[in-house]
Design a protein that fits this description.
Blueprint: E1 2-6, H1 10-22, E2 26-30, H2 33-42, E3 47-51, H3 59-67, E4 74-78, H4 83-92, E5 96-99, H5 104-117, E6 125-128, E7 131-134, E8 139-142, E9 145-147, H6 151-162, H7 170-177, H8 188-200, E10 209-212, E11 216-219
Parallel strand pairs: 1-2, 1-3, 3-4, 4-5
Antiparallel strand pairs: 6-7, 7-8, 8-9, 10-11
Helix pairs in contact: 2-3, 6-8
Domain Response regulatory: 2-115
Protein name: Heavy metal response regulator transcription factor
Keywords: Cadmium, DNA-binding, Phosphoprotein, Transcription, Transcription regulation, Two-component regulatory system
Length: 223
Amino acid sequence: MRILIVEDETKTGDYLRKGLLEAGFQADLARTGVDGLHLALNADYALIVLDVMLPGLDGFSLLQQLRERKQTPVLMLTARDEVADRVRGLELGADDYLIKPFAFAELLARLRTLLRRAPPRVQDRLSIADLSIEVQRRRVTRGEVRIDLTVQDFALLHLLAEREGDVLSRSLIASHVWDMNFESDTNVVDVAIRRLRAKIDDPYPVKLVHTVRGMGYVLEIRA
């Protein structure tokens, strides 16, 4: 499980990273707010430990920008014990708040509580080759071209992309996309696959949706 630490104090940052590694986590360390925001937005973290007082971009501003894109759990750290600061952090979307100095055992216990509480995270951006899917915005592009999909087309593509490389049977696709039991004399899945291919594959030299005879369909890059 991967955790991001955003902390500019060298001793504190190194101490936190060492402790988390010893506790069995993967841990990345950013020492500025700008670097922390870049990592938080472009990598997949289970949780972020965020200091308030940071150079370039403070923790409050980082959190505000993060919440516009992601809901990664955040534990804020600060040496400032004012109630107003804690309220501000929580109102901006922090999940917990810990005042410096703190015992590492307490921080670890709070992290584990947040991780247990956090709902399963849905990856917001999926990509394969030059195909990009922004899940929450329901935006699909191939290269620089925007592709408009119906609700069911998008659900089908999202399912295939989430299970990239896995061969999905017609019955599985039907149950997930249409919430229906697949019957052998029903060609709804094949029709939907043809419609999806016409939009995301036919205009492009590299094909991504493939038929596995007798088994189903798969989304993957093939040589």
